[in-house]
Write a structure and sequence with these properties.
Order of helices and strands: EHHEHHEEHHHHEHHHHHHHHHEEEEHHH
Number of helices: 20
Radius of gyration: 22 Å
Structural class: mainly alpha
Shape: globular
Strand order of the largest sheet: 2-3-4-9-6
Distance between the termini: 33 Å
Length: 512
């Protein structure tokens, strides 16, 4: 698929220089489930390498960090749990007798193994809500099942009943790998971890990107972004076109290397670095295996995982040893060591951070660029707004922030149009299709009683593409008034946060 607007001038715009920070929270927990591979198939075009709006992408990146990292599990859960109770359950419209149906009466689909293997399951998810309804039970070939919910009221019910430590089923093949190697790992990690085990690891990581924890590395992060821009410009073809996504993956790894290890991996070298390329390939393969192991031959996928994870762990362990030679350093490894974290836990966390660097922010930015390329008017509005923040192409983001750098990601310091672009991008094309939970108690969802212990998927991407929440839901319309109008119509206090915030945080920011 090649969708290119004739007036695109995007490829030479520098990425913002805070790239690695987005990996620290958003990227940790993404389960590659129904991802859409299309972003890697289209290209960006540029006709003018010195276009004055180079800073748009840079600010997009910072704003992306803000939206994706400024909240967390407790914030999101509290938002849903504080919503007023429903006066009349929405499902009464479909069940006039108001009788709660049993679990066996729930509409059922599946097994749909081929759609998983072909990476088209996200299309089925969208189809089910239109053809079946807001609550769908999916059967798997092994006899188990999963409940998919699409209505914001059911999202509220699920979050309200999360309990102290939310539960979910994810990354089981990673859990198997790490349990089989107790000499390297104390736990299964952030992806497959649940309950207190997950919380023990998660609390070791700093939250958000605006605090002092990461400020000492800001200069290195700006340099990484500069190298990314130079690399992209030097690899334009004769038509000034490039498939930018592979370069974004390299940029993400280089950035997370700085933030975790204070180390340049040379992933952005003009001559490809074999070790960095192998790490990126191992991360891609791991994400694929995590997805396929849920629906295919688990043992076969586990055997595929072993060499990839063995290589990943071997390289990262060598990096950790070098980072520990500088105990006074400012990277994440130094901070974890100073706080008494065990070597096994540090290895687990750093591996999870590198794994997460691949799947979320590069794809989100890729989609954002694609959408804005098709909307030249929006591109121009964003450029004009951002000139006040970064007045020339060489402006550095942190220098423009001044003393209020720790508040850089608050709404008052951001570009409204860039925020709207990111909201709309994440509504249409979030890096994860939704959020998963195992309910710890019986719940009534969509008029059906779901017994405790079932896997439930909150289908936020599909919900965000429904006309009941958004006018012209498949149209990219990054204007704040659009959300406000819907909020007023639906009686929601915020801009449809019940659905939209899920598109922003999905499976990631909740950490579960």
């Amino acid at each position: 698929m090649a969708v290119v607007d004739s007036c695109v001038d995007w490829i030479t715009f520098p990425m913002c220089r805070l790239g690695c920070l987005v990996c620290l929270e958003l990227n940790l927990y993404v389960q590659v489930c129904g991802f859409d591979p299309d972003p890697s198939l289209w290209t960006f075009v540029t006709r003018n390498r010195q276009h004055p709006c180079r800073m748009i992408v840079r600010h997009l990146k910072h704003a992306c960090s803000a939206w994706l990292l400024s909240t967390g599990c407790k914030v999101l859960s509290c938002h849903f749990s504080q919503e007023a109770s429903f006066e009349t359950p929405y499902w009464h419209r479909y069940f006039p007798d108001k009788r709660i149906r049993g679990f066996d009466e729930m509409p059922t689909v599946g097994p749909v193994t081929e759609e998983y293997k072909n990476f088209k399951i996200h299309e089925a998810y969208q189809r089910w809500v239109l053809e079946v309804g807001h609550v769908v039970k999916e059967l798997f070939s092994d006899g188990s099942c999963c409940v998919h919910v699409y209505h914001k009221d059911d999202f509220v019910t699920i979050y309200r009943n999360d309990g102290k430590y939310p539960l979910r089923k994810s990354h089981q093949v990673i859990a198997r790998y790490r349990r089989d190697r107790p000499h390297l790992y104390n736990s299964v990690g952030l992806g497959p971890g649940m309950g207190a085990e997950w919380h023990y690891l998660r609390r070791m990581l700093p939250s958000g990107v605006g605090g002092n924890a990461y400020l000492p590395l800001r200069q290195q992060l700006e340099e990484v972004a500069d190298d990314f821009v130079d690399l992209v410009q030097s690899n334009l073809d004769e038509n000034n076109e490039i498939d930018i996504l592979p370069y974004m993956f390299r940029w993400a790894f280089e950035s997370i290397g700085v933030i975790t290890l204070n180390r340049r991996l040379n992933a952005l070298a003009k001559v490809k670095n074999e070790e960095a390329e192998n790490l990126i390939e191992a991360a891609h393969l791991t994400n694929e295996i995590i997805f396929l192991s849920n629906v295919g031959d688990f043992e076969k996928q586990y055997e595929r995982l072993i060499p990839a994870q063995d290589y990943f762990a071997k390289v990262i362990m060598a990096y950790l040893l070098e980072a520990n030679l500088d105990p006074e350093g400012s990277c994440l490894v130094n901070k974890l060591s100073a706080e008494g974290a065990s070597p096994k836990d540090i290895l687990t966390l750093i591996l999870d951070l590198f794994q997460g660097a691949i799947g979320t922010v590069p794809l989100t930015l890729n989609w954002a660029l694609y959408q804005v390329c098709r909307c030249p008017g929006i591109q121009e509005r964003a450029r004009k707004d951002l000139l006040r923040i970064m007045p020339n192409k060489d402006s550095r983001y942190y220098e423009s922030a001044g003393r209020r750098v720790e508040l850089l990601f608050q709404a008052s310091n951001a570009s409204p149009i860039v925020q709207a672009i990111l909201r709309e991008t994440l509504r249409l094309s979030p890096p994860a299709i939704g959020n998963g939970r195992i309910n710890s108690k019986d719940l009534v969802l969509g008029g059906y009683l779901v017994p405790a212990g079932n896997m439930i998927v909150l289908q936020s991407q599909a919900a965000c593409r429904l006309e009941e929440y958004f006018e012209r839901p498949f149209k990219f319309i990054p204007i704040v008034s659009r959300q406000r109008k819907i909020s007023q119509e639906r009686g929601v206090n915020r801009p449809l946060d019940l659905v939209q915030e899920l598109a922003l945080v999905n499976h990631s920011l909740t950490g579960n």
